[in-house]
Design goal:
- Strand 4, helix 4 and strand 5 (about 125-130) form a beta-alpha-beta unit.
- Helix 4 (about 105-120) crosses helix 5.
- The protein starts with 7 loop residues before the first strand and ends in a 19-residue tail after the last helix.
- Helices cover about 40% and strands about 15% of the residues.
- An 8-stranded parallel sheet has the order 1-2-3-4-5-6-7-8.
- The protein has a domain at about 10-185 and about 215-220: TIM Barrel (Alpha-Beta Barrel), CATH 3.20.20.100.
- The longest helix has 14 residues, at about 15-30.
- It is of the alpha/beta class.
Length: about 270
Amino acid sequence: MSIPPFGLGTFRLTGQTVIDSVKSALELGYRVIDTAQIYQNEAEVGQAIAESGVPRGKLFITTKVWVDNYAADKLIPSLRDSLQKLRTDHVDLLLIHWPAPGNGVELAEYMRALAEAKKLGLTRQIGVSNFNIELTRQAIAVVGKGEIATNQIELSPYLQNSKLTAFLKEQGITVTSYMTLAYGKVLKDPVLTEIANKHKATVAQVALAWALQLGYAVIPSSTKRENLASNLLAQSLRLDADDMARIATLERNGREVSPANLAPAWD
């Protein structure tokens, strides 16, 4: 896939906390860092990367354009500002953060600006986040089939989003799962706990392995070095067909994030 399967999320991490998290992750072997303009931590992420000594060419950096910067005359200037904070001349992936249907900028306008950012070499790939099926279709119509690398969406054993993920697979668009642990709610799940005990794994590893086995990319975050190290091991955990079938039964449409003025009509 053009999107690496495992990375570090930085949502809700700021100041020294995000610097420490990113530096620890890079020391442990993470090479994918996901941030966003609205997280207000791009400068700290850039600092942590610079201080880590890991060459830029070995990293995959994602950021997301905030809704205030969707207009054609704002998107690229805002990206240049992000690049300055991140201390790089390009990101590997640039996403539209939320569709924000009522914010006064048409989808066609911001998708064209996104495509222009790629053309200028300011990002290697482009994509979307929190888009439903219809809006993803509209985005494809603007930039062309094969241009949208990923749709980053909330997914967990409690929110499996089967209609949308099936559509994205059909379109050749990688699914990136965020909030795969449902704000930690899945960590106490009895079914996941049983599966974890069976494999001598943690519940977090089971949830992440489930997403990875479905072909999704994951970007868990943590402020604790031991959890960062433990999460990485999810890549080598193999769940069997019975495990996957049991996790499939946990679906309960348990959405954690849906801001009224930003979110689409969910599928």
